[in-house]
Amino acid sequence: xxxxxxxxxxxxxxxxxxxxxxxxxxxxxxxxxxxxxxxxxxxxxxxxxxxxxxxxxxxxxxxxxxxxxxxxxxxxxxxxxxxxxxxxxxxxxxxxxxxxxxxxxxxxxxxxxxxxxxxxxxxxxxxxxxxxxxxxxxxxxxxxxxxxxxxxxxxxxxxxxxxxxxxxxxxxxxxxxxxxxxxxxxxxxxxxxxxxxxxxxxxxxxxxxxxxxxxxxxxxxxxxxxxxxxxxxxxxxxxxxxxxxxxxxxxxxxxxxxxxxxxxxxxx
Length: 268
Known about the structure:
Elements: H1 5-11, H2 14-18, H3 25-28, H4 54-62, E1 69-73, H5 85-88, E2 93-97, H6 101-110, E3 117-120, E4 123-124, E5 129-134, H7 144-150, H8 154-157, E6 166-172, H9 174-181, E7 189-192, H10 198-203, H11 207-210, E8 214-218, H12 230-242, E9 245-250, E10 254-259, H13 260-265
Parallel strand pairs: 1-2, 1-7, 2-3, 4-6, 7-8
Antiparallel strand pairs: 5-6, 8-10, 9-10
């Protein structure tokens, strides 16, 4: 397969054309307990996974790898809508960061028998601080504006509590977290799913220094119903492009970047 076929394989699929909003309750299963799907695939994910063909995307880039390293910021319960669980099940070293204590504990229980997965009850921010977080399942956020916007959207407001519930969480920068727990190890996959806090995460992260091979990040720059931070999402997008990353998948929610170095190393 030609190298540039990787982009066409994922950017031209029918699911891109429809720009499905998979954070609705009916599509993403936010209020359900999804079972594993794609049985027989090398990387198995839940039916709540938001990126179709994620197994194929990982296979194209990493092959059938069992010794990779994944860092996920905003892991929720480690299962629902997870882009990392298929990697963890294959033996990857996974560092999962989740700010809401209840969800971090669920993630720990999900991987209680997997010594390769470490769960941290922390938030990631542009500087070290005590961060106030709205508790709202997979939509938990530190952003008051985004929380209010969720309250106006039918597909989101069913996941919000009747009265706002706020937790105060210790926050560190991604740079400091990596220095403390990962060191100089190469990061294969970085996942950022922080519901409106993406810019703050990126402000505390040296993309050039750490250069993860692949980054999956929520950027709502083309989301039809989320208006909050579209301009900031586009700033983040440009930061990746200017840092020699290419887009190998994009929909209304998620954008997958691949480092130019890895792209050029792929065999045709």
